[in-house]
Amino acid sequence: MIGRAVSVLRLSVLLAVTACATPVPDSDVPPGHLPAPATDEASFWMVTDKAERMAQTAGNRVTDPALNAYVKSVLCRVAPDYCDQVRVYVMRRPLFNAGMMANGAMFVWTGLLLRARNEAQLAFVIGHELGHYLRRHTLARMRAVRARADATAFADIAMAVAGAGFARAFVHMAVLGSLMAYSRDQEREADDLGYALLLDAGYDGGEAPLIWDDLAGEHEAGDWPSPLIFFGTHPDSAARAQTLRAKSAPADGEKGRARFLEETLRFRDQWLRDELRLRNFGSFGFVLDRLSDAGHSPGLVAFYRGEMYRLRGEAGDLDLAFASYRAALGHDDVPAACYRSLGLLHRSHGDDRAARDAFQTYLAKRPDAPDRLMIETYLAEGRSHDD
Amino acid sequence: MTTDRGRIAPGLIAPGLIAALLLGCCVAACGDRFSLVEPGSAPVGDAFTVTTPIAWNEIEPDQRIIWTRNGIGLDEIVFFPDLEAGDSLVVQRGQARKVTPMPALDPAMAPSDIMDLVVDTVTRTGGAEVTATDLRPAPFGGLPGFRFALSYYTDQGLKTRGLVAGAHRGDRLHLIIFTAPAQHFFTTYRGPVEAIFESVVIDDGDG
């Protein structure tokens, strides 16, 4: 209870300090806040309430109770006074993003959970987004968008921030991204507040700039256009990482790596598959490199590197694919699908014996394979070539 | 409408994903571009002919052919008469093609790879928890083809099922994708669709 009181006091001081430094037209959002009727804020809440209801039933909403409870627990640790007020939704979407709507609904994409190295990094992003909400940047942004976009685009934006449903046109989302971009001052303010919340919750502040470092690196590697709503409309990632790095951080802050991996590692296979589907091999390779550096799930990472080369199909990629798949085989966590991919590659290059070995191993490891009958046909074809 | 996710969804019909993207317009505006396909023999481009036991409404966007009984989003058969190397199931334009291109066909793809391509495309176009099952060899108009089943949730949480049939012909791919909401529409039209799959006659081009 005392800890929470200190936390609220610190938050209030922080908000006051930032308010003095940067003029903000509206006051902060107190716990339990509801907009007054007949205000524009109330009308924005109606739109975002609708978007939230759609997100609740969206096909890509992650309903795993343990994962949702974990992400919510991080929010509650970062901002205990807003624990009951803020609803957190985990949306299965590739790419790094989290967002918060004016009505207190927070959305965290699985692409972010794939990229965060530990709980401290997740906590910083949650604190950062909460900072936008508490400082009313979200409200100011919605007012600006409403003045410039029609109702359809406005609703689209709410849905796109959530990550619910399908982003209909890539270019359309890029345009919306430009409308939704926070100002540099707002981003700095959110970083400051997110950083303060991070330290106050006992996390390692040194993890904060690493998020923006990685975002900047991936943005460049993937040759993504900017601004882009999928990147949470976060410009100047490299500069912001530098600003955060200049802040002093206590040496005993918690990273929460073990707990984070325990809660998220079991989803890594499907989240990597989601990223690979985007077919942005520059971006995907960057993500794999970061995961490889971290050292977890080496067999899975090597398999997906093989998939990346196999699907990219540039000169020399075939050899790289084979090498990656073979590297994956040396690890306990190699997925069964690796043998399938090896078998398909061997088959397409006429090595029936190697294909047979790989396919047989695949079916042994995956008796319920969705393509079992077809694989057995490949095996029969291979045997007939031997005859 | 109660979704399979347990809550009442907004009263919008979730559009069939690939079909909706191919149309690129609302169904109402496209209404006058549909034509009637009577029961019987019907050509699918210049690639093959099928025989349908029931009538359909037909529209032809972007060199694909779409049949529907009750409207896009309730049931649809998408015919891809002739997919070539580099083709995607959904046509992209502009910046998206460069930054996040849709999965594209490679003539060397095995049926397993085609199954992955369909799953990836349906996921990219808004499908959730997309799974393909029962991939098996199946003749396609005398060609050594394949079939498999699809299951996914739309972006609005509606459970949808599908059937896919296809075959390579040289360096081209003939493909048929049927999707419909699992409740009522899929079970109602599964029989006629399977009859269509069985009826394929390849156009040998002798004309």
Q: Mind explaining what this structure looks like?
A:
The complex is a heterodimer of chains A (387) and B (207). In chain A, a hairpin with a 4-residue loop joins β2 and β3. In chain A, α3 crosses α5 and α15 packs parallel to α17. By secondary structure, chain A is mainly alpha-helical. Chain B has 207 residues and is an alpha+beta fold. Chain B contains five helices and eleven strands. In chain B, the strands form two sheets. An eight-stranded antiparallel β-sheet of chain B has the order 1-4-5-6-10-9-8-7, with helices on both faces. A three-stranded antiparallel β-sheet of chain B has the order 2-3-11. In chain B, a hairpin with a 7-residue loop joins β5 and β6. The longest helix of chain B has 17 residues. The radius of gyration of chain B is 16 Å and the shape is globular. The N terminus of chain B is likely disordered. At the A-B interface, α2, α8, α17 and α19 of A face α3, α4, β7 and β8 of B.
Placed side by side, the strands forming the largest sheet of chain B appear as: 1-4-5-6-10-9-8-7
Give, in order, the helices and strands of chain B. Answer: HHEEEEEEHHEEEEHE
Q: In percent, how much strand structure appears in the residues of chain B?
A: 35-45%
Quick one: which chains have the greatest interface?
A-B, 40 and 48 residues
Q: Helicity range of the residues of chain B?
A: 10-25%
Beta content of chain A comes to under 5%
Oligomer: heterodimer
- The main sheet of chain A orders its strands as 1-3-2
Q: Count of helices of chain A?
A: 19
Give the helix proportion of chain A (percent range): 55-70%
Spans of chain A of 5+ residues with little confidence (pLDDT < 50)? Answer: 1-27, 167-171, 229-233
User: Which structural class should the secondary elements of chain A be placed in?
Assistant: mainly alpha
Mean pLDDT over the residues of chain A? 84
Largest sheet descriptor of chain A: 3 strands, mixed
What's the number of helices of chain B? 5
Using the alpha-carbon principal axes, give the shape of chain A.
elongated
Instruction: Note the overall shape of chain B.
Output: globular
Structural class determined from secondary elements of chain B? alpha+beta
Output the radius of gyration of chain A.
23 Å
